[in-house]
Design a protein that fits this description.
Helix content: 55-70%
Number of helices: 9
Shape: rod-shaped
Largest sheet: none
Oligomer: single chain
Order of helices and strands: HHHHHHHHH
Distance between the termini: 205 Å
Strand content: under 5%
Radius of gyration: 46 Å
Length: 284
């Protein structure tokens, strides 16, 4: 059977390769045909996420001005103590206010008794602690309510209204409670308690206008919300010292008035009535 031309050519070519020392030709990798159907399209959502990945802020160079920290964040241990107080205030506001009030009233009463220069009376301290503990939560709720109301477009108007409302409503009510509770816990009667309030509240209310408007304005303007109670508490130590001193002065005046009354009654009782033994003369 005669060989075809192509078979003869392949045989000659193979013989030539063997003569050159090449056993076989390197086989090429079989070609993969692409499918007619397109592959899965990329998810547009993932592309959006990758395209919207956050970009880190550039590192400030020497020419970039860095804003300074507020003063209350640069006080070292005081700043850390204030931050701890702020966390406690956010977590347990009522308990934090009660403990703060007890500390304030304790320090105020001890200061007031040292100013008086007389022997320390623990009963007075106990009365102040009771008064401070009872009034802590109502005072806190009042200032929370005040901070949420009377907020106008003008900061100055809002601040002025808050100050006036606080001085006209809160101050006389709180001072009446403070001096009235002091008298009742000391064992005074209702009439004596009313006299104590009449004698102490007007002068304390007038003097409150000299201090608390400035404190309230500074607090609402510069102090963060969670630290306002700390700032007011520091000022309140001095204010409660003044109230305790004023209450003690009223007690001294009452004791002196009571002593004068007792002395007058004793003098009257010790003096016998002088009856005249002479007969009246009849003149003609």
């Amino acid at each position: 059977m005669p060989l075809s031309t192509s078979a003869l050519l392949r045989g000659a070519f193979r013989h030539r390769l063997e003569h050159l020392g090449i056993r076989s030709l390197p086989r090429s990798t079989p070609r993969r045909f692409q499918a007619s159907t397109p592959g899965p399209k990329p998810n547009r959502g993932s592309e959006a996420v990758r395209s919207e990945s956050p970009v880190e802020d550039p590192i400030p160079v020497g020419s970039t001005p860095v804003p300074p920290l507020p003063l209350w964040q640069r006080l070292g241990p005081l700043t850390r103590a204030g931050e701890a107080y702020g966390r406690a205030q956010r977590k347990r506001p009522w308990a934090t206010q009660i403990v703060s009030a007890l500390v304030i009233y304790l320090a105020a009463d001890i200061s007031a008794q040292r100013i008086g220069g007389k022997e320390y009376v623990p009963e007075r301290t106990a009365r102040n602690l009771i008064i401070g503990g009872v009034s802590a939560v109502p005072n806190f709720l009042w200032f929370v309510w005040l901070s949420r109301h009377f907020n106008y477009s003008s900061h100055i108007i809002s601040l002025g209204v808050k100050i006036v409302v606080n001085q006209l409503v809160f101050t006389p009510i709180f001072n009446s409670y403070f001096f009235g509770a002091q008298a009742l816990l000391a064992g005074d009667s209702l009439s004596e308690t009313w006299n104590r309030i009449r004698r102490t509240v007007p002068i304390s209310w007038v003097n409150a206008w000299k201090l608390w408007p400035a404190v309230t304005a500074f607090s609402f303007t510069f102090i963060p919300v969670e630290y306002r109670s700390v700032f007011s508490g520091v000022v309140a130590v001095g204010w409660q010292t003044y109230l305790s001193y004023l209450n003690r002065q009223a007690e001294i005046e009452e004791e002196m008035a009571h002593s004068r009354t007792v002395s007058t009654l004793s003098t009257v009782e010790a003096t016998p009535l002088q009856l005249s033994t002479e007969k009246p003369r009849i003149t003609t």
